[in-house]
Every structure is written in C-alpha cells, then in structure tokens.
Amino acid sequence: MDLADRLARRRGRREDLAAIAGLLAFLALILAVVVLPGFLVQGASTIRVPARQEARS
User: Does residue 54 or residue 11 have the better pLDDT?
Assistant: First the structure.
C-alpha cells in the first residue's frame, strides 16, 4: 500500500465522519423543532391544574 492509497483511505474516513456528524446535527435540529415547542406550550398553559396550584402556594 503506497502513500496515495493511505491518503485516499484517510480522506474517505474523514468524509464519512463528516457525513455522520452532519446527519446527527440535522436529526438533532429536527428533534428540537418538533419537541421544544411542546415543552414551551406546556409550561405557558393558562389552565390551572390543582396539583400545580398547591405546589406553588
């Protein structure tokens, strides 16, 4: 195996890792867009839940 083969293989690995990192970042972004608004809306609810009222007082 000569130097050119090793460099090509190393470049391929870096590209694979970059693709995996990009995919994970994309999935995290999609998950944040889908899940985070649900948490924000739940915390901002104007409906009083008796258990929460007791906990606050």
Answer: 11
DSSP sequence for 2-36: -HHHHHHHHHHHHHHHHHHHHHHHHHHHHHHHHHH
Q: What letter does residue 40 receive in the DSSP assignment?
A: H
User: pTM of the full predicted structure?
Assistant: 0.58
* Total length of the chain: 57
How far is Cα 21 from Cα 53, in angstroms, rounded to an integer? 44
Task: Report the pLDDT value the prediction gives residue 38, as an integer from 0 to 100.
Answer: 77
Report helix, strand or coil for 49.
coil
